[in-house]
Amino acid sequence: MGRYLERAEYLCRLLRFQVEALVDRPIREIHFGWSRIYISLNRNPPGGSLELLWDDEEDPLVDSYTLADSYTLADDLTFETSNPDSVFSCFSMGRENARQMRNRISGEMWSCLNLSYLRLQEMSIHKIWEVSPEDFYVATAHDVDTFVGVAEATMYRDEGWRFWRLGRAIERVQSSASLFLAQIEAGRRIDPSLGEDWTSLLRFCQAFDAYNRRHSVDVKPDQVLDLLVTDPQLPGSLHRSLNAAVTELDAIGPGPTAHSGALARRLAGRLRALVHYAWPDREDHESLLQWIGEHCRELHGLIMAAYVDYPIEDSPLR
Questions:
Q1: pLDDT over 90 for what percent of the chain?
Q2: Dihedral angle over CA of 119, 120, 125, 129, nearest 10
Q3: Where in the chain are the domains?
Q4: What are the pLDDT digits (tens) for 2-55?
Q5: pLDDT tens across 256-306, in order?
Q6: DSSP assignment, residue 217?
Q7: CB neighbour class for 309 (10 Å; exposed up to 12, middle 13-18, buried from 19)
Q8: Cα 148–chain centre separation
Q9: Which long-range CB contacts under 8 A does 281-285 form with residues at least 24 apart?
Q10: Least confidently predicted of 122-126, 150-154, 279-283, 314-318
């Protein structure tokens, strides 16, 4: 549940910034933004690929095709039920997990999540597009924030609470690593010379003011990555998210299959140590991000094996 809702909020923030860019940003930046989103999700867009077909940004046909493509892409990422990472799919699967565990969450949490899901059911890309799509994404992200606040205020502090926080932390690490890699890859494909795309990454990660305080207004890619990965005070940094994952795993304990639980804790510790100690001394940051993303998926598998999908003979209730 925690992972699905964290993913929905992440995608809503990405899409909010992307549809806001449609108003007055150059075609190249709009194209870059869609490429970054799809690369980070490891998903092919409708039609199979994204291509920048024109360089003449004063051609009215360019604006028309860009808006039409953006409408299709936003629909795929927001309401497409066959896309497991769409906003609607994440809400739907998060709600289903909550429904199955209603005895372990508060009634206020269920009501909050259920109302958000029912509101989404009544929406479509046509409805949000003809009014203000950015307002829809802001409101939906706020729904997740509200749910998090309700959970913080009302959820019983047992293992279920720990697993919910653990899922959110792992999702933040994996999503952030994927986004940073997508930023590098999209820049390599399109135009690595412009810095505006790194500014948009800072704004998305709510780190623009923190960057200015530390480095001034001159945006440099290496400094941006260092801040977003290693800053212990930045709420969404990899440093803080990995700290949270290690803390929750330690609090949960070994579980029914102690071996898998120990492997999960050791892997989480290695990921944290890599960000804390190895990152500042190494220059191959892209490969480090790839390693973090791959081993986050492995960490998820180990946690499932240790606490959820363990053999029946290891069950504590057997």
A1: 73
A2: 40
A3: 1-156, 157-318
A4: 999 999 999 999 999 999 988 888 888 888 899 999 999 999 988 776 765 545
A5: 877 888 999 999 999 999 999 999 999 999 999 999 999 999 999 999 999
A6: S
A7: exposed
A8: 15
A9: 285/222, 285/225, 285/229
A10: 314-318
Per-residue tokens: 284: 């191959």
Paired tokens of 13: 């923030």
Question: Do 310 and 256 meet the contact criterion of CB atoms below 8 Å apart?
Answer: yes
Alpha carbon distance 161, 155 (integer Å): 7
Q: 10-14 contacts: CB < 8 A, separation 24 or more?
A: 10/171, 10/172, 10/175, 11/37, 11/77, 11/85, 11/86, 11/87, 11/90, 12/87, 12/137, 12/138, 12/140, 12/141, 12/144, 13/137, 13/141, 13/204, 14/40, 14/179, 14/204
Structure-block tokens of residue 205: 């990660």
Return d(Cα 64, Cα 67) in angstroms, integer: 5
Q: Characterise 315 by phi-psi region: left (phi > 0), alpha (psi -120 to 50), beta (else).
A: beta
Q: Sign of torsion, CA 113 115 117 119? A: negative
Instruction: Report which DSSP code applies to 177.
Output: H
Return the amino acid letter for 11: L
Closest CA to 11 of 136, 108, 114, 98: 136
Pull the structure tokens for residue 20: 């806001």
Total residue count of the chain as it appears in this document: 318
Q: Which two tokens stand for residue 195?
A: 């810095």
pTM of the model: 0.90
Buried b (16+ CB within 10 A) or exposed e, 51-70: ebeeeeeeeeebeeebeebb
Residue 201 and residue 220 in contact, taking contact as beta carbons nearer than 8 Å: no
Q: Cα–Cα distances in Å, from 70 out to 35, 204, 289?
A: 11, 19, 29
pLDDT at 308 (0 to 100): 87
* Cα dihedral value 235, 236, 239, 241, nearest 10: 100
Q: Rounded to an integer, what distance in angstroms lies between the CA atom of residue 249 and that of residue 130?
A: 45
